[in-house]
Amino acid sequence: xTAVALLSGLMSAIDDHRWSDLHDYLHEDxxxxxxxxxxxxxxxxxxxxxAEYPGFEHLRVEEIVGTSDRxxxxxxxxxxxxxxxxxFECATFVRVRDGLIDQMTEVWTDVSxxxxxxxxxxxx
Length: 124
Fold this sequence. Notes:
By secondary structure, this protein is an alpha+beta fold. The protein has one domain: Nuclear Transport Factor 2, Chain: A (Roll), CATH 3.10.450.50. The protein has helices spanning 3-15, 43-51; strands spanning 26-34, 39-42, 56-66, 70-81, 84-97, 100-110. It has a six-stranded mixed β-sheet with strand order 2-1-6-5-4-3, covered by helices on one side. The N and C termini lie far apart (51 Å).
């Protein structure tokens, strides 16, 4: 299976809340790094994080690209939060070994953030 097919299948399993299927896509030596928090997860802890994420509702892949052994996707994720529905964007990058995802890097961000003052050109 190509990296794109594996990543697409993994994202579909997450959206469908099929937590027991996640290991079908992940190598036993799987590792995931969250760039934005500095956290790292193995296969079991990453699966548990997804399965137990508070209020998770949906994951919609917006774009996916790749080759036979590497893929990347951009996803929109929703979760029930304290003040309604929370929206996130996630960039996911994977590498495949032995027909399964063995390395993943993810970058998460909230939607509708305001750029820090002074980081954009002034209007003319």
